């Protein structure tokens, strides 16, 4: 995707020029404009790729439909027209949900202030407020910068005062999710404002609502992200600790998972959140003590046909295996066979292959006795099959190489059986194809006892080579 940006007006002018100067029909004019800008490296993800209505008789430029709808909503808000407001909110929210380009254009033309005013206007009407919050959520999706302090306080106030109302809680949490994704300052502001106990409390209070539990778990997980490239250091680790230590997050999530054993969407979200909270040795052990490990093993066994659950369960097992004592508990629970089965059963899924190899890699690290169990269970063979199946997936290749290296680094007797499976050419191919695999592939080959040619890089100076 390109990194250059253009204004909506620039794109609209190009489309209009194609129509008037080159006599293209509207659809062709749009396609040509898209091709023209993308060939120049322009990112059009925020551009409405449609023909703007022609200018009126007096020469006044017309607006795209999303802006016309916004104008109607703004009039209803300005006039406090409570009869028209529901219809206008519904129409605007529907268009915002269609694509990012629509809501981006609206956001650039004052939509946030209008929707926030609608929320404030609807404060005394529960159903209207619910609709206004749903509209705010739709607008914020992909545009977290729009939210200001007033909006944050409004969302937090609603979550506090209407915590018994599952629908209102869900609408508020959706706003939180969209506002905090890729926005570190909003995350920190919401945490300071007390969002964490509101999220964990909602999961406990409304544990029978699948969508609410899934959304609340997702919001908690986003609080542990470090995905805002504008901020060098975030508070992801601190937020994870607060969720666990101050808000009993591990128990809340594990108990919630027990109530939704047949819902793959909820289970995958809860597993993903658990993996983000496994940031300390004691937290990993707590997950085991609370029944989380038994739950993860059961999910792998019972949900093998649900790739989303399998992937996130593997990710969670990988995370809790960061604790050396937990490694033993995982192996004793029979998880290694299930991990190997998951890789083999979903061999065409690179993400499951990656997470499966990564989980086995963690279980093998510093644990020779676990290496024997993994080997006997077919773990090495499954990893090599994954490498064959996904030669272009650097993450799969890297995790498989690391697994092979961990298997043999303290158990040299496993080297020959693994080499007999054809490991050397596969690892050498990974090293040649992916620069990011060079170090781990070289280490794996070395520990397998293979001759390793060190890759030399020319530095540009006479007589100077860097290895």
TrEMBL record:
<dbReference type="InterPro" id="IPR016024">
    <property type="entry name" value="ARM-type_fold"/>
</dbReference>
<protein>
    <submittedName>
        <fullName>ARMC6 protein</fullName>
    </submittedName>
</protein>
<keyword id="KW-0677">Repeat</keyword>
<dbReference type="GO" id="GO:0002244">
    <property type="term" value="P:hematopoietic progenitor cell differentiation"/>
</dbReference>
<feature type="repeat" description="ARM">
    <location>
        <begin position="291"/>
        <end position="335"/>
    </location>
</feature>
<dbReference type="InterPro" id="IPR000225">
    <property type="entry name" value="Armadillo"/>
</dbReference>
<dbReference type="InterPro" id="IPR011989">
    <property type="entry name" value="ARM-like"/>
</dbReference>
